[in-house]
Amino acid sequence: MNVLRANIIANYLGTAWISLFSLLLIPFYLKVLGPEAYGLIGVFLAFRASLTILDCGLSAYSTREIARRKASIHAKSKIVSYVKTIELIYWFVGAFLFLIFGLASFFFPAGWFKLNKLLPNVIQASQLIFAITLGVSWPISFYRGILRGLEKQVEYNYIAVFVSTIRGVASLLVLLFISPTVIAFFIVQMISSVVEVFLMRKQVWRSLLQMGINNISYMQFRLKELINAWRGIAGISMVSILGVLIAQADKLIISREFALEELGYYTIAVTLAGSTSRLVHSIIVAIFPKFAVNHVRKNLQNMEIIYENSIGFVILIYLPVIICSIFFSEQLLFMWTRSELASIKVGQVLALLISAQLFVQLLSLSSNFQFATGKIKLLIWINAITFFVYIPILFITIQNFGIMGAAFSWLLVNFITCFFLVFQIRLKAAQKIMSFKWFFKLCLVSIFILLLCAIVKNLNFVAYINLMILFVIFFIYYFFLAKKMLSVYSSKLSESN
Hints:
By secondary structure, this protein is mainly alpha-helical. 83% of the residues lie in helices and 0% in strands. It is built from 17 helices and no strands. Helix 9 runs parallel beside helix 14. The longest helix is centred in the middle third of the chain and has 38 residues. The radius of gyration is 23 Å and the shape is globular. The model has no long low-confidence stretch (mean pLDDT 77).
C-alpha cells in the first residue's frame, strides 16, 4: 500500500478510536468528579498546552528535519546523531520542569481559583502529581515528531490507541471502585504517561534499526547538531510561542474571571469542538513530511498540488460538522452529557468553537506548508499582530459576554488570520491554486447540507431520530468523499514517494 495512503488511514482509525473513547468518558468524569473538579482538569490541560512554548517548535522542526534527511542519501546516516542529541535535551528539560513545578506546588496560591467544594490541599496535591506527569511526558512530542518524519505513523497510532485505551479504562475503574477523586484521576494520567513515553522511545529506535542504521550509540551526543537545530528553530519558536499564548489565553482569563464551574462547562465545549479536528488532523500530519520531501527535491509543483487538494478536502470534511452543529448543538450536547444545564449553557458556544476549528486546521495546514519551505517570517508577523489585537478583544468580550464572548473572539481571530495566510500563499504559488472550480464545489456542498439540515430540523420527529437520519446521510457522504480523497492521494501525490 502507498505509504501516504497507509498513514492517512492509520491516522483516521487511530484518532477516531481515541476521540470516540475520550468523548464517551467525559460525561462520566463530569458526573463522578463534578463540574468544579473537571474545571480544575481544564486549567491543568490549558497550562500543559501553554508550556509547549518551551518546546520552541523543536518537535515540528524535527519532523521536517528527519523527513529531509530521510530523503537525502548523504544525510540519512546522520539521523541517529540528531535524534540522540535532541532526545537528551528533551529529557533535561523534562527534569527541569518537574523540579520547578514540583516546588511551585508548595507555594502556588490556591486562592487563584474561586473554589466551592474543592479544598486547597487537593489543589496542591494535584499540582504535584501534574509536575511529575509533565516531566515524564515532556519528550513524547519529540518522539511523535520523529515517527512522523520517518513516516512511521501506523506504528505511532498503535501506541497511541493502546495507551489511550489503557488510560481510559484505568481511570474508569479507579474512579468507580477505588477513589472517585480528582487526585486519583491525575495519578492514573501520570502512570499512563510513563507507559506512553517508554513505548514511544522504544519504537523510535526500533524504526531507526529497521532503516538499516545499525551504528546506534547511546553516547552519541553532538553539539553541532544542537547548534544547527537552534538555528533552524529560531523562527519556528517565535511562531509556536505566540500561537500557544493565543490558543490558551481564553481558558486562563476565564479561570481568573469566573468560577471553576463556569470553566468546566467551557472546557466541555472546547473538548468536543477540539475532537472534531481529528477528522482532518490525520491528513495534515500525514502530508507534512511530503511537503518537506518535495521541497528538498525542488518539486514545487507537486508540493502545491498536495496543498491545494488538502485545503479542499479539509473544507469538504468540516462543512457537514459545522452546519450540523449550528442546527443541533444543544441536542448533541444533551445526548452526550445527559445534562440539560450543560446543553443550555454551552450549546451556542459549541457551534462557534466548532466553526473556529475549520480555520484553525486550515491555518495548521498552511503553516506546515510555510515551515517546509523555510519561509516563516510571514507567520511570525501574522502571529505577533494577532496576539496584540486578540488579547484586548478577548478581555472585553469575556467581561461583557462571558464564555460566549470568548468563543466568538476565537472564531473571529482564526477566520481573519486564515483568510490572510491562505491568500498570501495563493499569491506566491508557482501555479494557480484554489481555482474557481474548487469554490464552486464548496458552495454547492454548503447549500446542499444547509437545506438538508433545515429539512431534518423541521421534521416532526424526536431529536434522536433527526440526528440518526443525518448520521446515515453523512456516513454515505463521508464514504464517497474518503474514496475520492484516497484515490487522489494515491494517484497524484504518490509521485513524491
